[in-house]
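Notes, p. 3: input format for complexes.
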Amino acid sequence: MRKTIYFILLAVLALTLVACGGGGDDASGGADTGAGEKLFAQAVIGTQAGCITCHSLTPDEVIVGPSMAGIASRGDEAYIRESILTPDAQLVEGFPAGTMPQVWGDELSDAQLDQIVAYLLTLK
Ligand code: HEC
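Output follows (124 residues plus heme C):
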């Protein structure tokens, strides 16, 4: 009898943990970092090749652009936003101007941009 009660308590505890674990991630400004991660990993976004086709998440691995590993330690939110909207405003050393598409302000909705920025801010 006692065992049954413990089992029920354990089951309730487990369910509570599962229910609480799946909530939205509010790490930065409330934008959905999970949605940003998915967008970043899309092979195509709108009419463009997606971020992941040029940006690795492995430290120091260059595909076409610099790796995004640790981007949040190299720049703040304003820098990351500017780097996406006007990539040539501040070039990463060693990379040529005009390689990163200059169209993200049109291709991404404001919400999508916020999500990608929020996601990149988690890559410390
Ligand atoms: C065709 C290749 C290409 C695509 C697609 C691309 N980028 Fe880039 N990106 C680059 C290159 C090259 C640079 C380095 C030159 C510069 O600073 O603009 C760069 C620079 C950056 C930087 C600054 C990196 C740093 O280390 O300071 C960020 C942030 C960035 N890109 C984000 C994105 C995001 C987010 C997307 C998708 C919405 C994206 N990029 C799509 C090529 C690309």
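The radius of gyration is 20 Å.
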